[in-house]
GDSL esterase/lipase 5
Amino acid sequence: MASLSFHTIHVLVFCAYLLISTSSQSLPHQPKKHATLFIFGDSLYDAGNNNYINTTTDYQANFWPYGETFFGYPAGRFLDGRLIPDFIAEYGANFASAGAGALNDIHQGSVINLNTQLSYIVKAKKQLRQKLGDEATKKMLSEAVYLTSIGSNDYLSPLLSNSVFQSYSYKKQYIHMVIGNLTVVIKEIYKQGGRKFGFVNSAPLGCTPVMETIKLGGNGEYMEEATMLARLHIRAFSKVLQKLESKLKGFKYSISNFYTLLEERMDNPSKYDFKEGKTACCGWGPYRGLLSCGGKRTIKEYELCSNVSKCLLSFSSFY
Ligand SMILES: *[C@@H]1O[C@H](CO)[C@@H](O)[C@H](O)[C@H]1NC(C)=O
Ligand SMILES: *[C@@H]1O[C@H](CO)[C@@H](O)[C@H](O)[C@H]1NC(C)=O
Ligand SMILES: *[C@@H]1O[C@H](CO)[C@@H](O)[C@H](O)[C@H]1NC(C)=O
């Protein structure tokens, strides 16, 4: 995948340039004290990195109707508007890749896996040291915020390819492996100088449109599996974070309760001015749960909701 690595390095250089230019010159309206953002993860945060993976369109969103509400062009994001990090900052170094998991073999070859994302920050650090020197780089990296959204694909991918997690102990073991690999990455960022981490916990995976669709196809047990995996993951990961905080000096983190936040809105859409809480805005089949938005993947048919502002799951069904 030569084009991928070439491009990501290019992006890196560009982002590093932005970081440097925004931190050394004060732009108008910019608060004096601002931190650099480094972003890792999956489709929740991918701002277009997968555009450069030409082997498949499965994990790309650089075609209509993606992007239609905010950017006015297909911006490579898995929705019509902006991602969470877009609301926080316009500039930052974003390494996230739709479809990625904490395990390297999730959608291997079609996504930038978490370890590769990590290697880009190591490269960015080298480039920053050349430009800013050791002290300024150290300061920048320790004040930076590292936003991560990862884990959903580690559980959805096996379920969607029909592998049931037979036993409870196997589930626990699998979760242990997912969190283990994520922990390795967090520790490595810490070693590189990162101190401030922001996480979103797992989405209510069992109630996503794709799971609702699968349930109608007679595989209701997958839904329960997904819900259970998400809950166990959340519990185990919060313990790991507490441990890291007590063990690693200066380590700070915040985790948003994405599961509850989303579940509450899925169950009570009208309370939050939405009309639809469980159906995706763009896709095919019941709940528009089949990931066909844009008609560039295996399934070519797709349907759009009438008003995207009224639909909680603005476009995709999580991936
Ligand atoms: C891959 O996609 C990128 C971005 O759209 C494009 O610039 C590049 O030419 C493509 N490479 C190939 C081999 O198609
Ligand atoms: C977990 O992380 C290690 C070290 O980064 C890597 O070698 C290994 O392949 C990963 N395991 C999986 C299943 O992705
Ligand atoms: C869609 O919903 C939003 C929010 O309620 C509303 O402001 C807008 O007018 C609606 N658009 C259409 C075309 O109905």
Strands lie at 37-41, 93-94, 145-149, 196-200, 252-256, 282-283, 303-304.
